[in-house]
Design goal:
mainly alpha
C-alpha cells in the first residue's frame, strides 16, 4: 500500500488555489504568477508537514520557512525575490539528485 501524501481535502484546497490563481494571472501583473506558484509550493509543503507520512520532514520544514520568509520580497525587492526563487529551485534540484542517488536501481 502506498502512503497517502495528501488528504482529499488538502488536495482540493490546493486545486482551488491553483485554479483561482490561474484565473487571476490573466489580469494581474506578469510577475505575480511566480508569487502564486511559490505560495502554492508553501501550501503543499504545509500539507506534507501535517501528514505523518512525510519522510523528508526537515527538508520540507526548512523550505517552507525559506518561502514564507522570502516570498514577499517580490513587493519590495524584485531582484532579491528573483534570486530567492532561483536558490529555491537549485535547492529542490539538489534534493532530487540526492534522492535519486539513494534509490536502489532495479536490475
Amino acid at each position: 500500500m502506498n502512503p497517502k501524501v495528501l488528504t482529499e481535502d488538502q488536495a482540493f484546497k490546493l486545486l482551488a488555489f491553483l485554479v483561482t490563481s490561474a484565473r487571476l494571472c490573466v489580469v494581474e501583473p506578469e510577475n505575480y504568477g511566480t508569487f502564486r506558484l511559490i505560495d502554492a509550493a508553501s501550501r503543499l509543503l504545509g500539507f506534507l508537514l501535517e501528514n505523518e507520512e512525510a519522510r523528508d520532514r526537515d527538508f520540507y520544514a526548512h523550505l517552507q520557512r525559506e518561502i514564507e520568509d522570502n516570498k514577499l520580497l517580490l513587493l519590495s525587492d524584485e531582484e532579491a525575490y528573483t534570486q530567492f526563487v532561483g536558490d529555491a529551485a537549485r535547492e529542490i534540484a539538489r534534493r532530487m539528485k540526492t534522492k535519486s542517488a539513494a534509490q536502489p536501481i532495479d536490475v
